[in-house]
Design brief:
Blueprint: H1 2-35, H2 39-42, H3 44-67, H4 69-89, H5 93-121, H6 125-156, H7 161-164, H8 166-180, H9 195-218, H10 223-245, H11 259-289, H12 294-323, H13 325-343, H14 352-379, H15 387-422, H16 427-455
Protein name: MFS transporter
Keywords: Antibiotic resistance, Cell membrane, Membrane, Transmembrane, Transmembrane helix, Transport
InterPro entries: MFS, MFS_dom, MFS_trans_sf
Length: about 500
Amino acid sequence: MSRWFALAILCAGQLMVILDGTIVNVALPAIQESLGFSSSALGWVVNAYLIPFGGLLLLAGRFGDLFGRTRVFVTGLVIFTVASLLCGLAQNATVLLAARFLQGAGGAVTSSVTLAMIVTMFTEPGERARAIGVYSFVQSAGGTLGLLLGGVLTRAAGWHWIFFVNVPIGVAAAVLAQRVLVAERGAERGKGTDAFGAALITAALMLGVYAIVAAADHGFGSVRTLGFGLVALVLLAAFAVRQARTGNPLLPPRMFRYRDVSGALGTHALMISGIFGFQFLVVLYLQKVLGFDELETGAGVVPVSLLIGLMSLFLAPRLIGRFGARAVLPAALVLICAGLGILGRIPADGAYLTDVFPATVPLGIGFGLAMPALAGLAMSGATPQDSGLASGMFNTVQQVGASLGLAVLSALAASHTGALLHDGASRDEALTDGYRLAFRVGAVFVLGALVIAVTVLRGPRGTASAASASGPASASGPASSRPAEADNPPVTP
Protein backbone atom coordinates (compact mmCIF):
# COMPACT_ATOMS: atom_id res chain seq x y z
CA MET A 1 0.00 0.00 0.00
CA SER A 2 2.85 2.43 0.80
CA ARG A 3 4.16 2.16 -2.76
CA TRP A 4 0.77 3.14 -4.19
CA PHE A 5 0.55 6.04 -1.76
CA ALA A 6 4.02 7.09 -2.90
CA LEU A 7 2.80 6.84 -6.51
CA ALA A 8 -0.09 9.17 -5.64
CA ILE A 9 2.39 11.72 -4.26
CA LEU A 10 4.59 11.49 -7.34
CA CYS A 11 1.61 11.87 -9.65
CA ALA A 12 0.26 14.81 -7.63
CA GLY A 13 3.56 16.62 -8.16
CA GLN A 14 3.57 15.71 -11.85
CA LEU A 15 -0.06 16.77 -12.30
CA MET A 16 0.70 20.16 -10.78
CA VAL A 17 3.51 20.67 -13.29
CA ILE A 18 1.50 19.44 -16.29
CA LEU A 19 -1.50 21.59 -15.36
CA ASP A 20 0.66 24.67 -15.42
CA GLY A 21 1.49 24.04 -19.06
CA THR A 22 -2.10 24.79 -20.14
CA ILE A 23 -3.86 26.51 -17.25
CA VAL A 24 -2.06 29.77 -18.08
CA ASN A 25 -3.30 29.83 -21.69
CA VAL A 26 -6.89 30.55 -20.71
CA ALA A 27 -5.83 33.39 -18.38
CA LEU A 28 -3.55 35.20 -20.84
CA PRO A 29 -6.09 37.91 -21.80
CA ALA A 30 -6.73 38.70 -18.11
CA ILE A 31 -2.97 38.78 -17.39
CA GLN A 32 -2.40 41.12 -20.33
CA GLU A 33 -5.07 43.54 -19.13
CA SER A 34 -3.89 43.43 -15.52
CA LEU A 35 -0.13 43.80 -16.04
CA GLY A 36 -0.06 45.74 -19.30
CA PHE A 37 1.69 43.17 -21.50
CA SER A 38 2.03 44.09 -25.17
CA SER A 39 0.65 41.59 -27.67
CA SER A 40 4.16 40.54 -28.71
CA ALA A 41 5.39 40.16 -25.13
CA LEU A 42 2.37 38.21 -23.89
CA GLY A 43 3.64 34.97 -25.43
CA TRP A 44 6.62 35.06 -23.09
CA VAL A 45 4.35 34.28 -20.16
CA VAL A 46 4.28 30.79 -21.72
CA ASN A 47 7.78 30.76 -23.25
CA ALA A 48 9.49 31.84 -20.02
CA TYR A 49 8.22 28.57 -18.55
CA LEU A 50 8.90 26.32 -21.55
CA ILE A 51 12.55 27.26 -22.10
CA PRO A 52 13.96 26.29 -18.67
CA PHE A 53 11.58 23.33 -18.50
CA GLY A 54 12.85 21.85 -21.75
CA GLY A 55 16.46 22.82 -21.08
CA LEU A 56 16.89 21.39 -17.59
CA LEU A 57 15.10 18.03 -17.79
CA LEU A 58 18.13 16.01 -18.85
CA LEU A 59 20.51 17.62 -16.37
CA ALA A 60 18.04 17.32 -13.50
CA GLY A 61 17.45 13.66 -14.31
CA ARG A 62 21.16 12.97 -14.11
CA PHE A 63 21.39 14.85 -10.82
CA GLY A 64 18.73 12.48 -9.52
CA ASP A 65 21.05 9.54 -10.24
CA LEU A 66 24.04 11.29 -8.68
CA PHE A 67 22.51 12.82 -5.55
CA GLY A 68 19.31 10.86 -4.95
CA ARG A 69 16.03 11.07 -6.81
CA THR A 70 13.87 11.78 -3.75
CA ARG A 71 16.07 14.72 -2.83
CA VAL A 72 15.86 16.10 -6.36
CA PHE A 73 12.08 15.55 -6.53
CA VAL A 74 11.44 17.42 -3.27
CA THR A 75 13.82 20.22 -4.30
CA GLY A 76 11.88 20.63 -7.53
CA LEU A 77 8.58 20.77 -5.64
CA VAL A 78 9.91 23.48 -3.33
CA ILE A 79 11.23 25.58 -6.23
CA PHE A 80 7.99 25.18 -8.17
CA THR A 81 5.81 26.05 -5.16
CA VAL A 82 7.81 29.16 -4.22
CA ALA A 83 7.80 30.28 -7.85
CA SER A 84 4.02 29.76 -8.06
CA LEU A 85 3.55 32.00 -5.02
CA LEU A 86 5.75 34.67 -6.62
CA CYS A 87 3.75 34.41 -9.87
CA GLY A 88 0.49 34.95 -8.01
CA LEU A 89 1.90 37.95 -6.13
CA ALA A 90 3.44 39.56 -9.24
CA GLN A 91 2.41 43.17 -9.75
CA ASN A 92 4.30 43.80 -12.97
CA ALA A 93 5.38 41.95 -16.10
CA THR A 94 9.07 41.67 -15.16
CA VAL A 95 8.38 39.91 -11.86
CA LEU A 96 5.90 37.54 -13.46
CA LEU A 97 8.31 36.53 -16.25
CA ALA A 98 11.17 35.98 -13.79
CA ALA A 99 8.91 33.88 -11.55
CA ARG A 100 7.67 31.90 -14.57
CA PHE A 101 11.30 31.10 -15.50
CA LEU A 102 11.91 29.85 -11.95
CA GLN A 103 8.67 27.90 -12.10
CA GLY A 104 9.80 26.19 -15.32
CA ALA A 105 13.08 25.23 -13.66
CA GLY A 106 11.23 23.75 -10.68
CA GLY A 107 8.87 21.88 -12.99
CA ALA A 108 11.80 20.37 -14.88
CA VAL A 109 13.52 19.22 -11.68
CA THR A 110 10.31 17.63 -10.40
CA SER A 111 9.35 15.93 -13.68
CA SER A 112 12.82 14.66 -14.55
CA VAL A 113 12.94 11.93 -11.90
CA THR A 114 9.27 10.99 -11.51
CA LEU A 115 9.24 8.15 -14.05
CA ALA A 116 12.56 6.81 -12.72
CA MET A 117 11.16 6.63 -9.20
CA ILE A 118 8.07 4.81 -10.44
CA VAL A 119 10.00 2.10 -12.31
CA THR A 120 12.33 1.53 -9.35
CA MET A 121 9.44 1.24 -6.90
CA PHE A 122 7.38 -1.15 -9.04
CA THR A 123 9.53 -4.04 -10.22
CA GLU A 124 6.85 -6.71 -10.74
CA PRO A 125 5.84 -6.49 -14.43
CA GLY A 126 2.08 -6.31 -13.91
CA GLU A 127 2.29 -3.71 -11.15
CA ARG A 128 4.81 -1.69 -13.11
CA ALA A 129 2.53 -1.62 -16.15
CA ARG A 130 -0.35 -0.39 -13.98
CA ALA A 131 1.82 2.25 -12.30
CA ILE A 132 3.11 3.52 -15.65
CA GLY A 133 -0.50 3.61 -16.84
CA VAL A 134 -1.40 5.94 -13.96
CA TYR A 135 1.63 8.11 -14.75
CA SER A 136 0.69 8.22 -18.45
CA PHE A 137 -2.86 9.22 -17.62
CA VAL A 138 -1.65 12.11 -15.47
CA GLN A 139 0.76 13.18 -18.23
CA SER A 140 -1.87 13.22 -20.95
CA ALA A 141 -5.05 14.26 -19.10
CA GLY A 142 -3.47 17.10 -17.11
CA GLY A 143 -3.51 19.41 -20.12
CA THR A 144 -7.26 19.13 -20.61
CA LEU A 145 -7.90 19.61 -16.90
CA GLY A 146 -5.76 22.75 -17.08
CA LEU A 147 -7.99 24.24 -19.78
CA LEU A 148 -11.10 23.65 -17.69
CA LEU A 149 -9.60 24.73 -14.36
CA GLY A 150 -7.96 27.81 -15.87
CA GLY A 151 -11.28 29.10 -17.17
CA VAL A 152 -13.12 28.44 -13.90
CA LEU A 153 -10.45 30.02 -11.65
CA THR A 154 -9.93 33.05 -13.86
CA ARG A 155 -13.64 33.80 -14.02
CA ALA A 156 -14.40 33.08 -10.36
CA ALA A 157 -11.35 34.43 -8.52
CA GLY A 158 -8.98 36.16 -10.95
CA TRP A 159 -5.84 35.06 -12.79
CA HIS A 160 -3.66 35.16 -9.65
CA TRP A 161 -5.38 32.01 -8.40
CA ILE A 162 -4.19 29.85 -11.28
CA PHE A 163 -0.82 30.14 -9.51
CA PHE A 164 -1.96 30.29 -5.88
CA VAL A 165 -3.75 26.94 -6.28
CA ASN A 166 -0.34 25.27 -6.65
CA VAL A 167 0.88 26.42 -3.22
CA PRO A 168 -1.11 24.13 -0.87
CA ILE A 169 -0.72 21.20 -3.27
CA GLY A 170 3.04 21.74 -3.53
CA VAL A 171 3.52 22.12 0.22
CA ALA A 172 1.49 18.97 0.98
CA ALA A 173 3.28 16.94 -1.71
CA ALA A 174 6.74 18.05 -0.49
CA VAL A 175 5.98 17.22 3.15
CA LEU A 176 4.46 13.83 2.33
CA ALA A 177 7.28 13.00 -0.10
CA GLN A 178 9.88 13.47 2.62
CA ARG A 179 7.94 11.14 4.92
CA VAL A 180 6.94 8.43 2.46
CA LEU A 181 9.68 8.26 -0.19
CA VAL A 182 12.98 6.64 0.70
CA ALA A 183 15.92 9.06 0.46
CA GLU A 184 18.65 7.37 -1.61
CA ARG A 185 22.27 8.44 -1.33
CA GLY A 186 22.79 8.49 -5.07
CA ALA A 187 24.34 5.78 -7.20
CA GLU A 188 27.47 7.67 -8.24
CA ARG A 189 27.76 10.37 -5.66
CA GLY A 190 31.50 10.08 -5.21
CA LYS A 191 32.41 10.31 -8.89
CA GLY A 192 31.69 13.99 -9.35
CA THR A 193 29.84 15.62 -12.21
CA ASP A 194 30.79 16.73 -15.68
CA ALA A 195 30.20 20.45 -15.08
CA PHE A 196 31.32 21.51 -18.56
CA GLY A 197 29.14 18.88 -20.22
CA ALA A 198 26.22 19.99 -18.03
CA ALA A 199 26.68 23.58 -19.18
CA LEU A 200 26.86 22.52 -22.84
CA ILE A 201 23.70 20.38 -22.87
CA THR A 202 21.68 22.85 -20.80
CA ALA A 203 22.63 25.75 -23.07
CA ALA A 204 21.98 23.64 -26.20
CA LEU A 205 18.52 22.56 -25.08
CA MET A 206 17.49 26.00 -23.87
CA LEU A 207 18.62 27.66 -27.08
CA GLY A 208 16.96 24.92 -29.12
CA VAL A 209 13.63 25.32 -27.33
CA TYR A 210 13.94 29.11 -27.63
CA ALA A 211 14.54 28.85 -31.38
CA ILE A 212 11.46 26.64 -31.75
CA VAL A 213 9.06 28.74 -29.68
CA ALA A 214 10.36 32.03 -31.14
CA ALA A 215 9.83 30.71 -34.67
CA ALA A 216 6.12 31.39 -34.22
CA ASP A 217 6.91 35.13 -34.21
CA HIS A 218 9.92 35.32 -36.51
CA GLY A 219 9.40 32.39 -38.89
CA PHE A 220 11.46 29.23 -39.36
CA GLY A 221 13.50 30.78 -42.17
CA SER A 222 14.44 33.95 -40.28
CA VAL A 223 18.04 34.78 -39.46
CA ARG A 224 17.13 34.84 -35.76
CA THR A 225 15.59 31.35 -35.73
CA LEU A 226 18.28 29.77 -37.92
CA GLY A 227 21.04 31.46 -35.97
CA PHE A 228 19.88 30.25 -32.57
CA GLY A 229 19.12 26.83 -34.02
CA LEU A 230 22.63 26.58 -35.47
CA VAL A 231 24.25 27.60 -32.18
CA ALA A 232 22.13 24.98 -30.39
CA LEU A 233 23.29 22.28 -32.83
CA VAL A 234 26.95 23.30 -32.44
CA LEU A 235 26.64 23.11 -28.65
CA LEU A 236 24.90 19.75 -28.93
CA ALA A 237 27.71 18.42 -31.13
CA ALA A 238 30.30 19.72 -28.67
CA PHE A 239 28.41 17.96 -25.88
CA ALA A 240 28.44 14.67 -27.83
CA VAL A 241 32.22 14.94 -28.35
CA ARG A 242 32.68 15.76 -24.68
CA GLN A 243 30.66 12.73 -23.57
CA ALA A 244 32.71 10.40 -25.77
CA ARG A 245 35.98 11.63 -24.26
CA THR A 246 35.33 12.34 -20.59
CA GLY A 247 35.79 9.66 -17.96
CA ASN A 248 32.52 10.40 -16.16
CA PRO A 249 30.04 11.51 -18.82
CA LEU A 250 26.80 13.20 -17.91
CA LEU A 251 25.08 11.22 -20.68
CA PRO A 252 26.91 7.87 -21.04
CA PRO A 253 27.07 6.71 -24.69
CA ARG A 254 25.82 3.29 -23.57
CA MET A 255 22.35 4.81 -23.21
CA PHE A 256 22.03 4.89 -27.01
CA ARG A 257 23.37 1.39 -27.63
CA TYR A 258 20.22 -0.22 -26.31
CA ARG A 259 18.00 -0.61 -29.35
CA ASP A 260 14.62 -0.49 -27.63
CA VAL A 261 15.54 2.69 -25.74
CA SER A 262 16.72 4.56 -28.86
CA GLY A 263 13.77 3.27 -30.89
CA ALA A 264 11.27 4.24 -28.19
CA LEU A 265 12.71 7.75 -27.93
CA GLY A 266 12.58 8.22 -31.71
CA THR A 267 9.02 6.90 -31.84
CA HIS A 268 8.03 9.11 -28.92
CA ALA A 269 9.50 12.23 -30.54
CA LEU A 270 7.59 11.76 -33.80
CA MET A 271 4.34 10.70 -32.14
CA ILE A 272 4.34 13.70 -29.80
CA SER A 273 5.25 16.05 -32.67
CA GLY A 274 2.26 14.77 -34.62
CA ILE A 275 -0.37 14.66 -31.90
CA PHE A 276 0.55 17.56 -29.62
CA GLY A 277 -0.90 20.12 -32.01
CA PHE A 278 -4.25 18.31 -31.83
CA GLN A 279 -5.45 20.04 -28.68
CA PHE A 280 -4.22 23.47 -29.77
CA LEU A 281 -5.64 23.28 -33.30
CA VAL A 282 -8.93 21.66 -32.30
CA VAL A 283 -9.42 24.41 -29.73
CA LEU A 284 -8.93 27.01 -32.46
CA TYR A 285 -11.33 25.19 -34.80
CA LEU A 286 -14.01 24.89 -32.12
CA GLN A 287 -13.72 28.54 -31.10
CA LYS A 288 -12.96 30.38 -34.34
CA VAL A 289 -14.98 28.28 -36.78
CA LEU A 290 -17.74 26.59 -34.75
CA GLY A 291 -18.11 29.48 -32.27
CA PHE A 292 -17.60 27.58 -28.98
CA ASP A 293 -16.83 29.53 -25.78
CA GLU A 294 -14.03 28.57 -23.34
CA LEU A 295 -16.04 26.13 -21.25
CA GLU A 296 -17.67 24.49 -24.26
CA THR A 297 -14.23 24.10 -25.83
CA GLY A 298 -12.83 22.47 -22.69
CA ALA A 299 -15.77 20.10 -22.59
CA GLY A 300 -15.22 19.28 -26.26
CA VAL A 301 -11.76 17.81 -25.63
CA VAL A 302 -12.75 15.99 -22.42
CA PRO A 303 -13.70 12.76 -24.28
CA VAL A 304 -10.08 12.33 -25.35
CA SER A 305 -8.88 12.61 -21.76
CA LEU A 306 -11.54 10.21 -20.50
CA LEU A 307 -10.59 7.59 -23.09
CA ILE A 308 -6.88 8.09 -22.35
CA GLY A 309 -7.65 7.49 -18.69
CA LEU A 310 -9.65 4.34 -19.33
CA MET A 311 -6.99 2.94 -21.64
CA SER A 312 -3.89 3.83 -19.64
CA LEU A 313 -5.35 2.88 -16.25
CA PHE A 314 -7.18 -0.33 -17.13
CA LEU A 315 -6.68 -1.75 -20.62
CA ALA A 316 -3.08 -0.83 -21.44
CA PRO A 317 -1.53 -2.69 -18.46
CA ARG A 318 -3.42 -5.87 -19.37
CA LEU A 319 -2.57 -5.72 -23.08
CA ILE A 320 1.08 -4.90 -22.44
CA GLY A 321 1.27 -7.65 -19.83
CA ARG A 322 -0.17 -10.20 -22.24
CA PHE A 323 1.20 -9.20 -25.64
CA GLY A 324 4.14 -6.91 -24.84
CA ALA A 325 4.70 -3.21 -25.39
CA ARG A 326 6.19 -3.79 -28.84
CA ALA A 327 3.02 -5.53 -30.04
CA VAL A 328 0.63 -2.95 -28.55
CA LEU A 329 2.47 0.15 -29.79
CA PRO A 330 1.94 -0.21 -33.59
CA ALA A 331 -1.79 -0.75 -33.18
CA ALA A 332 -1.96 2.35 -30.96
CA LEU A 333 -0.10 4.44 -33.54
CA VAL A 334 -2.46 3.29 -36.30
CA LEU A 335 -5.42 4.49 -34.19
CA ILE A 336 -3.75 7.88 -33.68
CA CYS A 337 -3.18 8.18 -37.44
CA ALA A 338 -6.85 7.36 -38.02
CA GLY A 339 -7.96 10.06 -35.60
CA LEU A 340 -5.76 12.70 -37.22
CA GLY A 341 -6.96 11.52 -40.62
CA ILE A 342 -10.57 12.14 -39.59
CA LEU A 343 -9.64 15.65 -38.45
CA GLY A 344 -7.89 16.15 -41.78
CA ARG A 345 -11.36 16.13 -43.37
CA ILE A 346 -13.19 18.61 -41.11
CA PRO A 347 -15.48 21.01 -43.06
CA ALA A 348 -15.89 24.74 -42.53
CA ASP A 349 -19.61 24.22 -41.83
CA GLY A 350 -19.03 21.20 -39.62
CA ALA A 351 -20.58 20.11 -36.34
CA TYR A 352 -18.88 18.78 -33.24
CA LEU A 353 -20.76 15.48 -32.97
CA THR A 354 -20.30 14.47 -36.62
CA ASP A 355 -16.88 15.93 -37.45
CA VAL A 356 -14.80 16.26 -34.26
CA PHE A 357 -16.14 13.73 -31.78
CA PRO A 358 -15.51 10.70 -34.08
CA ALA A 359 -11.81 11.62 -34.11
CA THR A 360 -11.59 11.79 -30.32
CA VAL A 361 -12.33 8.06 -30.01
CA PRO A 362 -9.31 6.64 -31.91
CA LEU A 363 -7.09 9.46 -30.62
CA GLY A 364 -7.99 8.79 -26.98
CA ILE A 365 -7.70 5.01 -27.31
CA GLY A 366 -4.48 5.17 -29.32
CA PHE A 367 -2.70 7.67 -27.10
CA GLY A 368 -3.87 5.91 -23.94
CA LEU A 369 -2.27 2.68 -25.18
CA ALA A 370 0.84 4.25 -26.74
CA MET A 371 2.11 6.28 -23.79
CA PRO A 372 2.43 3.42 -21.26
CA ALA A 373 4.06 1.23 -23.93
CA LEU A 374 6.57 3.93 -24.88
CA ALA A 375 7.36 4.83 -21.26
CA GLY A 376 8.08 1.21 -20.45
CA LEU A 377 10.26 0.68 -23.54
CA ALA A 378 12.18 3.93 -22.96
CA MET A 379 13.03 2.83 -19.41
CA SER A 380 13.75 -0.80 -20.33
CA GLY A 381 17.49 -0.36 -20.74
CA ALA A 382 18.08 1.81 -17.69
CA THR A 383 20.27 0.45 -14.93
CA PRO A 384 19.61 1.62 -11.35
CA GLN A 385 22.45 4.11 -11.86
CA ASP A 386 20.90 5.55 -15.03
CA SER A 387 17.14 5.47 -14.43
CA GLY A 388 16.97 9.16 -13.55
CA LEU A 389 18.84 10.00 -16.73
CA ALA A 390 16.53 7.76 -18.79
CA SER A 391 13.51 9.47 -17.22
CA GLY A 392 15.00 12.87 -18.03
CA MET A 393 15.67 11.77 -21.62
CA PHE A 394 12.08 10.58 -22.04
CA ASN A 395 10.65 13.84 -20.74
CA THR A 396 13.14 15.94 -22.72
CA VAL A 397 12.16 14.19 -25.95
CA GLN A 398 8.51 14.78 -25.09
CA GLN A 399 9.01 18.47 -24.36
CA VAL A 400 11.19 19.20 -27.39
CA GLY A 401 8.97 17.10 -29.67
CA ALA A 402 5.86 18.87 -28.41
CA SER A 403 7.40 22.32 -28.91
CA LEU A 404 8.69 21.47 -32.38
CA GLY A 405 5.47 19.78 -33.49
CA LEU A 406 3.27 22.60 -32.25
CA ALA A 407 5.49 25.24 -33.88
CA VAL A 408 5.62 23.43 -37.23
CA LEU A 409 1.92 22.53 -37.39
CA SER A 410 0.67 25.93 -36.24
CA ALA A 411 3.02 27.70 -38.66
CA LEU A 412 1.82 25.51 -41.53
CA ALA A 413 -1.82 26.18 -40.65
CA ALA A 414 -1.26 29.95 -40.36
CA SER A 415 0.75 30.15 -43.58
CA HIS A 416 -1.79 28.15 -45.59
CA THR A 417 -4.67 30.15 -44.15
CA GLY A 418 -2.93 33.42 -45.02
CA ALA A 419 -2.37 32.31 -48.61
CA LEU A 420 -6.02 31.32 -49.01
CA LEU A 421 -7.24 34.61 -47.55
CA HIS A 422 -4.97 36.45 -49.98
CA ASP A 423 -6.59 34.49 -52.83
CA GLY A 424 -10.06 35.55 -51.70
CA ALA A 425 -11.27 32.54 -49.69
CA SER A 426 -13.74 33.12 -46.87
CA ARG A 427 -12.39 33.35 -43.33
CA ASP A 428 -13.93 30.10 -42.10
CA GLU A 429 -12.88 28.13 -45.17
CA ALA A 430 -9.33 29.50 -45.03
CA LEU A 431 -8.97 28.71 -41.31
CA THR A 432 -10.42 25.23 -41.70
CA ASP A 433 -8.23 24.38 -44.68
CA GLY A 434 -5.18 25.44 -42.67
CA TYR A 435 -6.20 23.20 -39.78
CA ARG A 436 -6.86 20.31 -42.19
CA LEU A 437 -3.35 20.62 -43.61
CA ALA A 438 -1.81 20.64 -40.14
CA PHE A 439 -3.72 17.53 -39.05
CA ARG A 440 -2.62 15.68 -42.20
CA VAL A 441 1.03 16.59 -41.63
CA GLY A 442 0.63 15.47 -38.02
CA ALA A 443 -0.61 12.11 -39.29
CA VAL A 444 2.53 11.85 -41.44
CA PHE A 445 4.68 12.39 -38.33
CA VAL A 446 2.84 9.59 -36.54
CA LEU A 447 3.29 7.34 -39.59
CA GLY A 448 7.02 7.97 -39.24
CA ALA A 449 6.76 6.89 -35.61
CA LEU A 450 4.95 3.73 -36.76
CA VAL A 451 7.79 2.90 -39.16
CA ILE A 452 10.36 3.19 -36.36
CA ALA A 453 8.21 1.13 -33.99
CA VAL A 454 7.88 -1.69 -36.53
CA THR A 455 11.46 -1.73 -37.84
CA VAL A 456 13.61 -0.78 -34.84
CA LEU A 457 11.92 -2.01 -31.68
CA ARG A 458 12.51 -5.65 -30.86
CA GLY A 459 11.14 -5.98 -27.33
CA PRO A 460 9.80 -9.41 -26.33
CA ARG A 461 6.20 -10.46 -26.95
CA GLY A 462 3.83 -12.58 -24.89
CA THR A 463 2.98 -12.67 -21.22
CA ALA A 464 6.60 -12.55 -20.17
CA SER A 465 6.98 -9.44 -22.19
CA ALA A 466 5.64 -7.23 -19.49
CA ALA A 467 9.30 -7.05 -18.72
CA SER A 468 9.63 -4.98 -21.83
CA ALA A 469 8.38 -2.27 -19.57
CA SER A 470 10.71 -3.34 -16.80
CA GLY A 471 14.39 -2.90 -17.08
CA PRO A 472 16.81 -3.48 -14.22
CA ALA A 473 15.66 -1.71 -11.10
CA SER A 474 16.70 -1.32 -7.53
CA ALA A 475 14.70 -1.29 -4.35
CA SER A 476 14.68 2.45 -3.92
CA GLY A 477 10.99 2.89 -3.24
CA PRO A 478 9.17 2.86 0.07
CA ALA A 479 9.17 -0.93 0.16
CA SER A 480 12.16 -3.00 -0.84
CA SER A 481 11.56 -5.36 -3.70
CA ARG A 482 13.55 -7.69 -5.89
CA PRO A 483 14.79 -6.22 -9.19
CA ALA A 484 12.90 -7.34 -12.25
CA GLU A 485 14.84 -9.35 -14.77
CA ALA A 486 14.88 -7.86 -18.26
CA ASP A 487 14.80 -10.16 -21.27
CA ASN A 488 17.35 -7.92 -23.01
CA PRO A 489 19.92 -6.69 -20.50
CA PRO A 490 21.26 -3.18 -21.10
CA VAL A 491 24.48 -2.85 -23.02
CA THR A 492 27.35 -1.58 -20.95
CA PRO A 493 30.75 -0.35 -22.12
